[in-house]
Amino acid sequence: MTFLLLTQLLAAAAAVFCIAAFAIRLRTFLRLTVPKDRSQLKGSPNAGIAYALSLGMLPWAKESTRRHALAYLRGVGFHMTVFLVLGLFLASPWLGLIPGAVRAGLATLCGLGSLLALFGFLSRFIEKNLKALSTPDDYFATLLVSLFLAGAAAMLLNLNLLPLFYLVSALVFVYMPLGKIRHCIYFVFSRLFFGRFFGRRAVLPHSQQQEGIA
Amino acid sequence: MSTKVETALEILQKQLNQPLVAALEVCARCGICTEACHYYQAEPVEAYMPSMRAEQLRQVYRSEHDWLAKLFPAWTNAKPLSEEKLAALAEMAFTRCSLCARCTINCPMGVDTPLMMSVIRAMATATGLAPEVLEMLADAAIEKGRDPSIYLDFFLDSIKDMEKELQQLTGNPLARIPVQKKGVRKLYVALAGAHTILPAAAIFDAVQEDWTLSIYEAANYGIFLNDVSRAKAICKRIVDEAKALGVEEIVISECGHAYYAMRWVAPNWFGEEFNFRVTSIVEVIADYVKRGLLDLDPTANPDPITYHDSCNLGRKGGVLEEPRLILKAVTTNFRELTPNREQAYCCGGGGGLVANPDAFNLRMLAGKPKLEQVRKSGASVVVAACENCRLQLGELSSHYGAGFGVTAIADLVVKAMRLPGAGQTVEAKMTSTLESVEK
Questions:
Q1: Are B120 and B93 in contact (CB under 8 A)?
Q2: Which B residues 87-116 touch A at CB under 8 Å?
Q3: Whole-structure pTM value
């Protein structure tokens, strides 16, 4: 058995563990009740949900994300890169078939994503409020994701580094459902409840001028 | 583990549903919500970060429900609930958060921090750690509902006196304040005191509304305690009254939390879809204005006037445009606060803080962003459609010497009403009535 195959199997096993652990977590979550809202509608819960999961996520949609535009975009950027790298992980046995220029482009994207994650990691040391909020789990998770994206970039530039990428991936997959990264599966639900609440009340999506002299 | 801690954990366990678990799990601790909090705006310290507040409950949740945290508590900063921790949580949830939901609307994840603070309030109430005054106010309302005959005669006498004032005010000798009249369209639920009855009665009289007055008050302090049994008992008096009278609509006076409780939460407590509508008097007046039923003279209110969005009525209640529609019809110098509507700042008095004397200094601090907004607007009068907001705004004005006045929407509407055949605005009538009373 080659080292590459060994790491590949290890990463695949970790991915299976990750999926199984998330499935259990999701099943536990879905077994919880969702309180039925019997109040009379003013707006549309569905319109609220649609807004919460689309336009409501745009950087200019909220005062907070306008204020923290760079941090928000950094977060969006590195989360999108994570999804890209997960796709690359699935496609990894066939990456050699992709033209070198495309791989170089993808490597650049992954490298940028990794840098964004690294900035996120460093900002937890630098920014007073973030430092106060952060737990060791936060530091580790951000660093791990940064390594995951960097590993992908390196592997795309040099396919001989695939075993290294698989090793990092295995670590990510094992940690994902256990630590902070697990927040990803709750995101859609949280935005859904948010949209339902404010949509029902016709607070969101808003159509009126929000600020300034009316 | 002490009994108190056990009870509090039981409450937490019982409340764990999908929205709560999503709120507990989804936070990425990015801190983007930080400046959304009016406490943080007033005093930028870590303890006032919404995410830091929520983290206090998450520490307990993790310690109970996260096996990684159980093995390595320091890794996720998990902390088991102790009596000291419970007391600190209670103090935070009742005085350092007004449940305004501004952080929620500004959170990229939509984390429902007020939901978590409400759960802490429920844990604190069940363990005797809630502010006594909130419990007393809630219990007093429930007690009144048990046997209204104790105060009914006195109430009816005072309504008779008020009716005379109403007739003077409107110039209509036939103007009435009907109490618990069966088969009418609207049941109006006021707050304690004539100030929430007379203006509404004058408006109802002007449009010849088919209405009656409830013998109960709208205020519901049970909701601040997140004590469903108390909050439901308070609402039940009114729901039963509405059903017995066969009304089509319950109209809640200008009170944010009472509206929020009856309009948005009560149907869930009762597990039924009410066969009557629940509205705010603000929505009702806006409807009259839209339909041209009120003859209004905006020049009666020439001062620079601004509107404060009550969190319970606005961001959490959806009554955002109606007050503006009214104010534009009854004033000549209306200006917005910035930001407003769903991004409005809490005045600092929400969540029951106004009723809690121990929280005075904190709410004066938390009201600073609102005070600054009012100052920037240049308004000399702040309108609020919530009694607690008005109390807080009035105290902010006097505490900081800001010098602005505070009033209700219905008061301004009454001022702007032209009385049929009287040739005198209600404002002038009110002044002359007051003068005659003083004499």
A1: yes
A2: 104-112
A3: 0.94
